[in-house]
Specification:
With about 240 residues, the protein is an alpha+beta fold. It is built from twelve helices and seven strands. The mean pLDDT is about 90.
Length: about 240
């Protein structure tokens, strides 16, 4: 992440950092800052109030917003651009979610030229965490689901890049993170099988296919698609001889 005086961490949990030190803020202020970070723009006060306190009457929601702003100390207020009608994050505030999302989108852009820093174990780590786990507000869940899908696609793409570069251990790691995050996701299983096959680990490839096949049938009563079966068709045929 680009070094800035202030940093909001949303992946894996909420943290507010100033000069590298973590600051404690109230739950209302946490949600205010997280909402602005996810929105990536200035937001009308009325929209913020009704979104963050949807069950409160409008005047009560507006009062809650003013209270959350007031509870932010001098450092917290310096992170914000507070206008009479709108509020946004200031330019000195970095957000890990912004950079993770940009990384994922870059990995998925087939026309992009990827640098060494983007194709490495650090990228796997960045893509490993969900957005604000344990938060169940509707505005968080919508953004978290979108990020979940984006990061899984990016991990699968990163695994394929590692395979092409002959970096098989890293390919297996990236695909494994995706498969662990969504065990019934066939594209993640396919990425993991392809990584094992590229490294010559036939037994591992077949084992993961069988595990996926069993879980898919147990959980959903479904069978793997012909595309996935084709990846291990030769291995299954030889085993059955």
């Amino acid at each position: 992440m680009v070094e800035r005086p202030f940093c909001l961490t949303l992946l894996g949990g909420f943290r507010l950092l100033a000069g590298g030190e973590q600051l404690a803020v109230s739950s209302g202020s946490e949600r205010l800052l997280a909402f602005l970070a996810i929105s990536r723009r200035t937001v009308p006060r009325s929209v913020m109030a009704t979104t963050l306190w949807p069950d409160a009457p409008e005047k009560r929601a507006q009062a809650n917003l003013r209270s959350a702003l007031a509870r932010l100390d001098g450092v917290g207020r310096r992170m914000l651009d507070v206008g009479t009608t709108e509020i946004g994050l200031g330019p000195e505030t970095g957000v890990d979610f912004d950079e993770a999302r940009a990384l994922a989108q870059h990995l998925l852009d087939r026309t992009a030229e990827l640098g060494e820093s983007e194709v490495g174990t650090r990228s796997v780590e960045v893509l490993s965490d969900g957005l604000l786990p344990g938060w169940y507000e509707e505005w968080v869940l919508a953004a978290a689901d979108e990020w979940h899908q984006l990061r899984l696609h990016a991990l699968e793409a990163l695994s394929a890049i590692f395979v092409r570069q002959g970096r098989f251990a890293e390919a297996v790691t990236a695909a494994s993170v995706a498969a662990h995050a969504e065990p019934l996701r066939e594209s993640a299983c396919a990425a993991l099988i392809e990584a094992h096959l590229a490294e010559g680990n036939q037994a591992e490839a077949l084992r993961h296919f069988q595990l996926y096949e069993r879980n898919l049938h147990t959980e959903l009563g479904l069978q793997p698609t012909p595309r996935l079966c084709e990846l291990v068709a030769d291995l299954r045929a030889r085993r059955e001889r």
